Amino acid sequence: MRLDRARLLTLLSALALGSACGDQTNQRAGSQRGKADAEQAAAKPAAPTPAAEAAPLPEVAPPTVDSAAVTAPAGVVATVQLPSGKQLADLGAALDGVKPGSAAQLRAQLPFLLRQVAGLSLDKAADLSAPISIVVLDPAAHPEPFALLVAAADQDELGARAVKAGREIRVRDGLALIGPPAVVSAVEGFAFDQLRAQPDHTELILYLGPLLDALSPQIDQVLTEMGGAMLGTPGVNAQSVELLRKYANAMLAVGRQTQRVVVSVSPGQTTTDLFVRMYPIAGSTFGSFVSAQVPAEHALVAKLPNSANYGMLCSGQIHAGAAMAGLEAFLVEGTAATYNLGLTAADWTALFDPWLATLDGEFAMTMQLSLTPSQGSGGLKLSALLASSDAAAMREAWRAMIGAMTKAAPADGSGTKAMGMGVTTSYEQDALSHDGVGVDVYATRFDLSDMPAEQRASIEAMGAATQAMHFATFDEAGRGFGAMASAAEDAANMRALIDAARGEGEALELSEDLERALASSKAQTESLFFYADVAALAPAELKMPMRAFVLGMGKHGDGLGLRLSMRK
Fold first, then answer.
1. Which candidate, 34, 104, 217, 309, has a CA 20 to 30 Å from the CA of 157?
2. For the chain, how many helices (H) and strands (E)?
3. Do residues 559 and 277 lie in contact, with contact meaning Cβ atoms separated by under 8 Å?
4. Which residues pair with 364 in a beta bridge?
């Protein structure tokens, strides 16, 4: 039987979004099924609790607990483990939280998809209500790379079907490993020894080294052909393509320094959280970055000015550790690719070094992004505080950096491009003063003349063709701060930011949902927190399935945890 790869990709994609919430729905009760004898039934994994007896979801999705690290055989690129092949209580709740009815659709398709993985009918011969594991080998070396580990309800019948389908089957303690002979032979010990211990949730594990090796020809082809595929797109030029290529290569470098990635999802009544935990290779640069992370206290949030219009809040404390040199090199490459100013990598490094040296890692900002003209004008509006080890040195570094960029740019914007548009810049030191604090202004204007008329009209309607930013530094209570705010009439945004940071203005008021989300991030000891109010950002007619979403990042054991939380 030939595998339907499109359907298999559908299955694996769904599993990548699914995992349990540790919500009791995966409790198992031993039972005898099919024609298995008493000894086999006693050794067989127990069935999950019936849906009717499942406990209700918790109010807030709790974090999942990753399986312990194991050594996978050469060529294994991924494993998938499901607490049950039928009920999908954990995965179904997560999918229904995003799109109601999705669980029923997947539940109806899953037996057929598992049949495709096994290469034979599993009906009544395998206990699909019991835990199931899938091992995936390098698809370049194995045209049919899957092996299925399932409870054998009727060992004799399962064996007969395997022989008829040309599949290998190995049975141990009531579990059957089914797949192409070469695949089963390669993973037999691993599957029976390591995958019989099931997590209490659905879990996808990617082994990035072998996976990237397997996909290397396709990745190289995409990177090579990227320019030709994108350059015909309005607003895209060679600079933006090169920037995207550098970003992709940087992500690949991180992947090469990652031993495994564990993906799971946790559903709750009010939230559904997707977890991606990346475990670095010991001694790698990525590993040093992970080790440097600490839980954020988010103290600067209380120093932001109040605004009824902000749609996004970002706060955290990020440290680079021994990865700083690599991160700065990536920053230099990206900036040089974005701005064609004739500055060398050494020039950019000399500008960035003093600036980065003044940052202590703590920051907080609010943002409002107008996505449609009907939402008002102004494009991106921002108010940000950066904690600084030396406010005066930060001001000098900022002025040197922005001054060099402005000086190097031709007056007509011909030498500076961003997404295919010419950019004209201007910069003025101490353009205004507020309560003894000098405020600089940096402005950019985009040349939209080469853009399609519809896109140009939309950008102009949002007021995004021109952007101006105020910048200031100051000391308060023995601590240095850098402040950035979108320019407004009479510099109202910057004035409010300085006042709030000094405790003299109206501080930011958080909604109840935002307060709960921030408290959850603290409880999970995350270093970075990003909250987006979907209602404030997206037009109502889009009918988004969530009221808000959260992105979180922080150290998780020996790995780096990334969390996407969809708030209902």
1. 104
2. 16, 22
3. yes
4. 315, 385
Instruction: Return the sign of the alpha-carbon dihedral for residues 351, 354, 355, 361.
Output: positive
358 exposure class (CB count in 10 Å sphere: 0-12, 13-18, 19+) = buried
Amino acid at residue number 372: T
Q: What is the secondary structure of 77-106 as a DSSP string?
A: EEEEEES-SS--HHHHHHHHHHSTTHHHHH
Q: Look at residue 291 and tell me whether its pLDDT is greater than 50.
A: yes
Write out the E strands in 492-546: 528-533
Q: What is the pLDDT of residues 477-521, one digit of tens each?
A: 899 999 999 988 788 999 999 999 999 988 899 999 999 999 999
Number of C-beta neighbours around residue 325 at 10 A: 11
Average pLDDT of the residues of the chain = 83
The token pair that represents 364 in the structure block: 């907080």
Across the range 465-473, mean pLDDT stands at 89
Structural domain boundaries in the chain: 5-60+77-211, 282-567
Q: What angle do CA 260, 265, 271 make, to 5 degrees?
A: 145
As to burial, measured by CB atoms within 10 angstroms (0-12 exposed, 13-18 middle, 19+ buried), residue 286 is buried
Rounded to whole angstroms, the maximal C-alpha distance in the chain is 86
Average pLDDT over residues 212-235: 78
Which tokens go with 543?
């009918």
Which secondary-structure segment (H or E) carries 361? Answer: strand 359-369
- Asked whether 484 and 505 are in contact (CB, 8 A), the reply is no
Q: How far apart are CA 28 and CA 45, in angstroms?
A: 8
Q: pLDDT digit string (tens) for 308-319?
A: 678 899 999 999
pTM of the model: 0.85
The dihedral built from the CA positions of residue 331, 525, 362 and 484, taken in this order, carries a sign that is positive
Distance CA 35, CA 188 (A): 24
* CB of 423 closer than 8 Å to CB of 447: yes
Q: Determine the pLDDT at residue 221.
A: 87
Using the CB atoms, write b or e for 359-392: b if 16+ within 10 Å. Answer: bebbbbbbbbbbeeeebeebbebbbbbbbbebbe
Partners of residue 564 on adjacent β-strands: 274, 551
Q: In sequence order, what are the beta bridge partners of 260?
A: 279
